[in-house]
């Protein structure tokens, strides 16, 4: 099989890589195997910009979210409980008293609903 001169290098590369000579028409695969043009990088300005973003973004977020003003405005306010929050029982006696009170409220509400119906 006779190949054009620019295909001979490709044929030789296939034979040395694969180990046997291709039996199909190599011109069919030529467009996908041979590079048409070389790709260039975007340039040093893009790389500088990316580097600046990679460095600046974390520093800026730490500066903004780590500032005392942000803490006072958002975090500290979220940790404050409302004034009308009931005390949470923390021992067994208080828990049993709270359960009795809730049960009495539930029974009173149920009697109220049945009397209104």
TrEMBL record:
Domain of life where this protein originates: Eukaryota
Sequence similarity: Belongs to the PET100 family.
Annotated GO biological process: mitochondrial respiratory chain complex IV assembly
Membrane-crossing segments per the record: 48-67
Record's keyword annotation contains Membrane: yes
Main location: membrane
Keyword Protein biosynthesis: no
GO molecular function: unfolded protein binding
UniProt keyword annotations, A-Z: Membrane, Mitochondrion, Transit peptide, Transmembrane, Transmembrane helix
Pfam entry (one): Pet100
Any one of the GO CC terms: mitochondrial inner membrane
Location in the cell: Membrane; Mitochondrion membrane
Topology term for the membrane: Single-pass membrane protein
Full protein name: Uncharacterized protein
